Every structure is written in C-alpha cells, then in structure tokens.
C-alpha cells in the first residue's frame, strides 16, 4: 500500500441505530453505462469507461457514504456470450456477483427497446433470491418514444421489479435511484471508512486508467486484446515515476499502439498521465512499454498473471 493509500484510511466509526448499509451489484449488458453510473454515484472516477463494449474486466467496488447509509457498489463486466477464455471469466464473475450481494441493480439502455441480451439476463435474475431493481439508463436519449421504450422493459420483467428511470450522464433521476436503493437495504454498520470511495489498490486503478486511454485512442482496432501491468511505482517528494507494460496479442497491434514514430503511444501516455495526476493530486512521470503476448486471452495461466481470476 502506498503512502497515499495509507493516508486515505481512517478509523471506521460506529454507525447509528438507523444507519443502513449493504452491497449492490450493477448488472447489465455491455455498454449500457454501468461504470459511468457508478462513477457518478460515488462522485469520483473509480471505473474506466469507453465506447468499446466490455471495458470493465473486474468486479470493481465503488463506495457511496451518506448521512443515512453506506452503499458498496459492485460494478461487473457486461454479461454477454463469451468467445474466448477471458470472456468466460468475465461473464462468470458477473453472474457470481448476483448471489453474493444484498441487492441487484439491473441496468438497461432505455434509449433502445428491450432485446435478447436483456431477456437473457432477466432469465438469470429470475432464478435468484436477491432483490432486483430495474434501472432504465439513458433516458436523456429516449426522445418521443419514451412511453413505448419504458413499456418494453416493464413487460420484460412482467412488472415484478420496481423500475427507476435516470441518466448517468446528466444526473437526472439519480437522487430517486439512491433513495430506492437505500430503502431496500437492511440496517447495518460502516463497512469502510466514510471518506473511502473504492477498495481497489492504487496500482490497479492506474493500470485501468492507462487501459482506458488505449481503448479511447485506438477504438475498434484494439478492442480487448490489451492488458496493462504497472511494473513499478517510485514515489518522490516532487514527482511520482510510474513504469507500465502494455501486452497485446499480435505484432500488428503493437504497431497500432506505438503508431508512426511513436506518436500514438505518446498520445496515450499524455492522456493517461493527466488522469493519473488527477487521481493522486501530484506530478507524474509515466513510461510505457509495449510487448507481444500471443493468445494471452486463451491462456488461464496468463489470465491469472494479468489478474483475471474467477471470483468465488
């Protein structure tokens, strides 16, 4: 743990008798806005976002603490039909989160009618005893079809789950969503210090911020074939030096990330450094290396080395 992480941890207070707390899994198809929603609710960027589906690879925890409650959000990978070993791990981890939390927030893209992917997740959730709230995200994009779009989701769950409409981008409806979540939690203690917004180690978040910029800058060219490892962090009085490696599966992908005369890698590094500086509130020197790891997504050993393990 770094000095910054040690400084963020304070003693956990005793909760009053009417305090509520619990774990809420954010479940949904890829790219419905789960990570954006969690970041918005906790008030800080703890999960990376991008237009590319399947951006989230781990079960990330974001912590929202109010005067009345502490909600620990578990942001899961989008549930989809897997095409490789990494995909299997991601989907299994998302599904396993359902029975290990107090409440499930099933997030859908309400700018589009309910589809087969939503029905697939609905079938999974109907087999669990965990409470479910259906969250209709992206209502800012509904336009004149809002009634028919909302009705498609009401029919999806046969009216069995409470529906909350909101926009993770604009913030509309999030106060009501927060109230609905708290109302369904039991009375309980503080699980984390009130000033903590995530339980993820700083090194992991730094790696994710770098991966986010790779996805944003390369888009469809490097969809999911990249993994980032933070090799070393050197903390000085005036600057923090960070050395990270980027693994891809093919030489052609390495060429795309490096770019002509190294321009793409420079752009990725500059953007990532700015995000990391905002995270640690200090000056950062970031050095990136690119290496080829053929078929790493198909290897259970390499997946484990990169931190992608099946959750219990």
Q: How do the strands and helices of this protein lay out in sequence?
A:
Blueprint: H1 3-8, E1 20-27, H2 34-42, E2 60-65, E3 69-75, H3 85-98, E4 103-109, H4 116-125, E5 131-137, H5 146-156, E6 163-165, H6 174-183, H7 202-218, E7 227-235, E8 240-248, H8 251-258, H9 263-280, E9 284-292, H10 300-305
Parallel strand pairs: 1-3, 1-4, 4-5, 5-6, 8-9
Antiparallel strand pairs: 2-3, 7-8
Helix pairs in contact: 7-9
Describe the structure.
This protein has two domains: 14-183, Rossmann fold (3-Layer(aba) Sandwich), CATH 3.40.50.300; 202-305, K homology (KH) domain (GMP Synthetase, Chain A, domain 3), CATH 3.30.300.20. Helix content is 35%, strand content 21%. It is built from ten helices and nine strands. It has helices at 3-8, 34-42, 85-98, 116-125, 146-156, 174-183, 202-218, 251-258, 263-280, 300-305; strands at 20-27, 60-65, 69-75, 103-109, 131-137, 163-165, 227-235, 240-248, 284-292. A six-stranded mixed β-sheet has the order 2-3-1-4-5-6, sandwiched between helices. The chain has a three-stranded mixed β-sheet with strand order 7-8-9. The two termini are 24 Å apart.
